Amino acid sequence: MIPEPSFTIPKLSPGFEANITLPGSKSIALRQLAMSALVSGTSRITGIPECDDTDAMIDCLKALGVTVETQGRSLLVTGPMDFGSQTVALNARMSGASTRLLIALAALRTGSTLIDGHDSLRVRTNAPLFDVLRQHGCQIDSEDGGLPATISGPIHVQDTLRIDGSLSSQYITALMVIAPVLARRQDKDQQVIHIDGDLVSRPYIDITLNEMSKRSVIGHWATPETLHIPAASYPAGRYVVEGDASAASYFSALATLHHGTVTLTNLDASSVQGDYGFCHIMTLLGATVERQGMTRISGPEQLSPLARIDMQEMPDVALTLIAMAPLLPAPIEITGLQSLHHKECDRLECPARELEAMGVSLSTTHASIAIEPLLQRPPSAHRLTTYHDHRMAMAFATLGSAFGTLSVDDKSVVNKTYPNFWEDYSSLQT
Q1: What is the predicted pLDDT for the residue at 200?
Q2: Count of helices and strands (H, E) across the chain
Q3: Domains and CATH numbers, the chain
Q4: Based on the number of CB atoms within 10 Å of its own CB, is 258 exposed (0-12), middle (13-18) or buried (19 or more)?
């Protein structure tokens, strides 16, 4: 894909009002697609976001023998996938979450599955997941835990699956999705998954449990470190994907910064997405949030200071807070960021580099960043390097909205998860 030319982020005026229909949650969509691949029958899924990551997952499932058809606003996904000996090649493009789910699905196959992707995906490690699969009979051909990788199964699990949870929750989610099948293949009542190390992004595990429960597979935490997943066959059925809480963070931030009001029409307090907690952070900055049947964020006339906040439970929206931090009335320290080093780009080092280039004073550790406010010192014109990371562009739109002097090097990078982002951003202009 050829990057689009540099794009200047328009300045926003205070007091706007807008309704935003968010794209469906990518996290939920990918989980439902993966589970549908294991169903003997057709699942109807409504609300799948139209973006590069879900397109990549759908194309990979088709290569695995799953039928995917569009019917109105729904996808009809008919499985099961091919568990046989045929060698299959998959291209996950830039989707890390899809990659981890596909690795787990590949482990169920008798044959070999080659998984590759964009250069930015090749450098992201899958080593903790590969280690588990190797321990239970899979052959993995991979250099340093990255892509390209060839997975040759099938996996045989007699006992507990042990996985390091300190790097990414995606490895755990991948094992959870295939756990009902693993238990059934071994004639066990359940599959036990034990998590070693300090678990990052636990809310994403809760999303997985919630989506599995919609298919009548009721897993649970037996201890703070141990999951029990029952043996089961996923049923076909109808499933709805709610709005994406990570995408909601950008508009929550913009409303808060500009004393505006944004109504998110397809996201409410019933959501179990951990990133929905970003709304609470906005209330700490002075915003008002209504949550009944939708989510409405109204920004304050004057922002409140926030000295310190831990973002370990919602790392995907930490970048939004980092980007808006120079506009806050006082210094802020953002902690719990250790997992940001292993995203599409290093989401601690890269934004720090860009902010410093704009004249923002800051300091970092391996897991934190402390940022000083710009106050009355607006930055000069700056071309933001997005590092092929969709969230760099969307998060920094919050900072750019205050000045009209910040541009992004590739406007189209948002297509990974939110192709209509700039159109929705424009709806805030009065």
Answers
A1: 86
A2: 13, 23
A3: 7-23+242-426 (3.65.10.10), 26-239 (3.65.10.10)
A4: buried
